[in-house]
Design goal:
By secondary structure, this protein is an alpha+beta fold. The chain folds into two domains: 2-215 and 345-435, Zn peptidases (Aminopeptidase, 3-Layer(aba) Sandwich), CATH 3.40.630; 218-342, Alpha-Beta Plaits (2-Layer Sandwich), CATH 3.30.70.360. It has helices spanning 2-12, 25-49, 58-75, 136-155, 179-182, 184-192, 243-259, 311-326, 349-364, 383-386, 414-435, and strands at residues 78-82, 93-98, 105-110, 125-126, 130-132, 164-169, 195-198, 203-205, 208-210, 218-226, 230-231, 266-275, 277-281, 286-290, 295-296, 299-307, 333-342, 391-393, 400-401, 409-411. The strands form six sheets. A six-stranded mixed β-sheet has the order 1-2-6-3-7-18, sandwiched between helices. A four-stranded antiparallel β-sheet has the order 4-5-20-19, with helices on one face. Strands 12-16-10-17 form a four-stranded antiparallel β-sheet. Helix 2 runs antiparallel to helix 4 and helix 7 runs antiparallel to helix 8 (311-326). The longest helix has 25 residues, at 25-49. The protein is elongated and about 85 Å long. 48% of the residues are buried.
Length: 436
């Protein structure tokens, strides 16, 4: 399976796009409308960036949701705020829906940012070419692109018959658990859709625009190792054994030697606590330990993450890690537990067909072809929850970067580009479906 996916990516990463052609009359009308309204789109971006909305700032997330609800209502979507149960401690999600016939589209954004109240606030700022602010690229700019792509379609009467669901998720940066609750509505929308489009920031480097057809999974593992506490003078003897820290060193070294190396597979040991007394809170990723140099340590806890390109790769990596854990040193034992997180978005042929369509549009807009972005260059995202059920394409937002840092930015001229690419892509796919 992995060889197949890798060969697909390798073969197509610089593949020639489908014939680009030029914009149709309707597409040119949309492009003109977008150019005339780009300042309005940037004003909406400023309005939302100026609202602090870290995932745990529940009222801030709801306030951004109210702004975006106003915008979706104005486009004619039926909007709904979906509350999360109190025990999840998350703000909820905004969904907008419009019925129609033909190919069904799911457009995905998120209202929250990684920056919480304690990080301070960084409002919208611009020098005319670059704009900065908390959450501006990840992903308040993408939220705006969704609205104005729909408005552009509506401006030429093309939106009337297109079935659409817009999903603005309220906890993408710090997801509520379990996912069976926090992502239930998104997963159901993915099962309904024929095409899912994600609007996190677009990627441009080496003067090339890149298309995202694959994203790796993101899940966690917890390793708990126990040894026999004793005076350190007894370590390695037949009654005491190796102790917990030597055992965890063996295991981690085994992961490095025997699991590492497969393309698109990475794993990380993020925290480690070890000694005679250990306390660790996985929710806060914080812990403490106590031990002495003359005591054989009794316990070690390691908390890590793992990323893969497919479920098959994840399953095999987990099995290999379990095998290494099971081969204990004398008088030690270990348990590894895996927690499911964001699933992978595999580079399917359907996704690649969307990339080729988008690449042709990019050329028709006067830019170059859009090759496939290496999945190692992007993290996990909500689109991965729906990718198993439908064709999917991500990275349709404004061009920006430095996400999750105080220097997060977007290129203002890319607002018009991102809206045009999204609107024309939806238009062409819906026309293809009508022709069929």
């Amino acid at each position: 399976m992995i060889r197949m996916l890798t060969s697909v990516l390798t073969f197509l990463i610089f593949a020639s796009p489908v014939a680009a052609g030029s914009l149709s009359a309707d597409e040119r009308r949309m492009a003109d409308w977008i150019d005339a309204h780009v300042d309005d789109a940037i004003a909406l971006l400023k309005e939302t960036v100026d609202i602090p909305s870290g995932s745990m700032n529940l009222e801030g997330v709801r306030e951004v949701g109210r702004v975006m609800r106003r915008e979706l209502d104005a486009v004619g979507l039926a909007t709904e705020w979906i509350e999360m149960p109190a025990e999840l401690n998350r703000a909820g999600h905004l969904f907008g829906r419009k019925s129609g016939v033909g190919k069904k589209f799911l457009l995905i954004g998120h209202l929250d940012t990684v920056f919480e109240i304690e990080d301070g606030t960084r409002p919208f700022a611009s020098d005319g070419e670059v704009a900065t602010g908390h959450g501006i690229s990840d992903m308040k700019s993408g939220n705006v692109v969704i609205v104005y792509a729909l408005r552009a379609l509506a401006a030429i009467g093309a939106l009337d018959d297109i079935p659409v669901v817009v999903a603005y998720i309220g906890d993408e940066e710090k997801s509520g658990r379990p996912f069976s609750i926090s992502r239930k509505d998104l997963i159901e929308a993915g099962q309904w859709a024929d095409v899912a489009l994600g609007f996190e920031e677009g990627v441009n480097y080496d003067d090339t625009d890149w298309a995202t057809v694959a994203r790796r999974s993101s899940s966690n593992w917890m390793l708990t190792v126990t040894g026999k506490q004793s005076h350190s003078s007894n370590i390695f003897n037949e009654n005491t054994g190796a102790g917990a820290i030597f055992e965890v060193a063996r295991i981690l070294n085994g992961f490095y030697d025997d699991v590492r190396g497969e393309e698109y597979l990475t794993f990380n040991a993020g925290t480690i606590q070890g000694g005679t007394e250990v306390d660790y809170d996985p929710q806060q990723n914080r812990g403490s330990s106590f031990g002495k140099t003359n005591i054989v340590p009794r316990k070690v806890i390691v908390h890590g993450g793992i990323r893969t390109i497919s479920q098959d790769q994840l399953d095999r990596a987990r099995d290999a890690m379990r095998d290494i854990v099971a081969a204990s040193l004398p008088h030690t034992s270990a348990i590894i537990e895996f927690t499911d997180g964001y699933p992978p978005m595999a580079p399917t042929q359907g996704n690649i067909a969307l990339q080729q369509e988008l690449s042709a549009i990019n050329v028709a807009l006067g830019r170059g072809p859009m090759p496939l972005l290496d999945p190692l260059k992007r993290g996990a995202a909500d689109i991965s929850f729906v990718a198993p059920a439908t064709d999917a394409l991500a990275g349709l937002g404004m061009i920006g970067g430095r996400g999750h840092t105080p220097d997060e930015y977007v290129i203002l001229s890319s607002m018009s580009l991102a809206i045009k690419r999204a609107a024309i892509l939806i238009y062409r796919l819906s026309r293809e479906a009508a022709a069929d």
